[in-house]
Write a structure and sequence with these properties.
By secondary structure, this protein is mainly α. The protein contains 6 helices and 3 strands; from the N terminus they run H-H-E-H-H-E-E-H-H. A 3-stranded antiparallel β-sheet has the order 1-3-2. A hairpin with a 5-residue loop joins strand 2 and strand 3. The longest helix has 18 residues.
């Protein structure tokens, strides 16, 4: 006889699971953390500056990721009245709330990498 599942069925746990799912969906992919981190450290940046800073990303992918993050209110896009038109991107106040999370993920990743590559003591 199998034991009835009880941990993940609680209302509090369901809310947590939904929150984690939403976060992972919102920030999924190879580039979003890199783009957000670059904008957090660099402040307002033009598209071409971002393209140079985010090593390996294609212009089309950067454009898609920025549109997605703008739609989700993590990034603000400002079109300047210049000739030719200049577009700047910056992290919104709400997007900036991700800064400590990005920092902790980076710390964990560094620690994990060091643990994996630590020479074994004899």
């Amino acid at each position: 006889m199998r034991k009835k599942q009880s941990i993940n069925n609680s209302a509090a746990c369901q809310v947590r699971i939904a929150g984690i799912k939403d976060t992972m969906e919102l920030l999924s992919g190879k580039w979003k953390f890199h783009i957000l981190g670059t904008l957090i450290l660099g402040g307002k940046m033009r598209f071409m500056d971002l393209l140079r800073e985010v090593d390996g990303i294609a212009a089309k992918m950067l454009s898609k990721e920025l549109q997605d993050m703008e739609m989700n209110q993590l990034v603000r896009r400002t079109v300047l009245d210049t000739k030719p038109i200049t577009v700047e991107y910056e992290v919104t106040e709400y997007g900036r709330t991700l800064e400590p999370i990005i920092e902790e993920i980076a710390k964990w990743g560094i620690s994990y990498r060091n643990a994996l590559h630590k020479p074994e003591s004899v």
